[in-house]
Amino acid sequence: MTQQQTGARPKQGDELDLTIESLAHGGNGVARTEGYVVFVKGAVPGDRVRARVEKRKRAYAEARAVELLEPSPERVEPRAPHPGAPWQVLPYERQLEEKHSQVEDALTRLGGFSDPPVEPIVPAVEQWRYRNKLEYSFGEDESGRLVLGFHRPGRWNDIDDVTEDILASERIDGVRERVKEWCRDEGLSAYDRRDNTGFLRNLVVREGRRTGQLQVRVVTSPGEFNADGLAAVLEDAHGVLWTQTEGVAETTREGSTKLLRGKKTIEDEICGLRFRISPEAFFQTNTEMAEILYGTAMELAGLSGRERVFDLFSGIGTIALAMSTEAREVFGVEVIEQAVADAIQNARLNGVDNARFFAGDVRLAMRELVEEAGRPDVLVVDPPRAGLSAKIVRRILGAEPTRIVYVSCNPTTLAPNARQMVEGGYRLDAVRPVDMFPQTPHIECVAALSRA
To answer: pLDDT digit string (tens) for 83-122?
Structure first.
């Protein structure tokens, strides 16, 4: 049923004829019907679409474009269907303009900065095939044939088969296709979360862009299969692993992992340093742009070789070890113990002796770290998308660093955190957006603050 434009708010399931005015943070199109805001997935400014309402709230509705009635003059032909590349229908220069604008908007609207010091966005080195890690899901098509690809937008139980992944390298494409054909030949079934049946769940492929090493991990339900046969098909991989999990959640981070062949870790290089990466460790998925991101953080940190640096949420030590080459000493804090172990190992791998890593919750570990190491000259923070809690911000302010470098994957949480720091006695000196993820709405920034 198509909702009549009578001023009544649309209901869930209504279909609306909408013209997209702009893009919201997160990449959805923004339209209005009788003044009521509708966020539309799968549409870009200038599009006229038929959209089906999926959620209705008092101030706005969320909808999905089900038919493109009239394309935007800016729209370009997509290279291939890909739910992870929704902005491929926009020219790349337009993507950069939108991301820069959204950073400014967040700092102005959510951070209260009247003239935020946003620098020009750094464009990506590669616009396509830049990801070093991909996670695919197994499923079945209408005929019951095994497929391996991505969840269909808005249809969590339906998997669209992939034959070419425009964000992955040709080598990863080849691995996925070999695994899919082998699993078909073996007659293996896909896991179905609706009734908790089937075997194959996910395929996770990691590639060392600088080393050429491949890590392949198959995630299944508990059971048995010809593991040696799979390993033989992947003879060019540096390591082949098998994870078994009993949970029903769509995650590759649970269960027990067994090494089938090769090594459990791979290595890659960033900023002249070599990093050993465990199967579930976080490592930036765009190697080339991660190097630029970390280089930007080092530049804005203004290191001279005399500074004591704290790196919060330090992960496997990528930023901390990069900073160690230009600082007197670096201390990393990370809550995940395996990541801390990886960071210590990476320091040894690179012969770094001025970086130390500690396992602990940032909210609790900061005071003890200041007591043991002294106050930091530079404090680097690289939080998850949710940003920093008010308590962590207070801990940072209490440490009284001369400079703060905030690496952000979400400008809408960077903005209020930056405002809290400014109210705590700091000045926002610069914000530099870096395009880590072309063809997507995701935005990374590096912000620099100094004591006012």
So the answer is: 999 999 999 999 999 999 999 999 999 999 999 999 999 9
Rounded-to-integer distance, Cα 310 and Cα 339, Å: 16
- pTM exceeds 0.90, yes or no: yes
Q: Which of the residues are catalytic?
A: 409
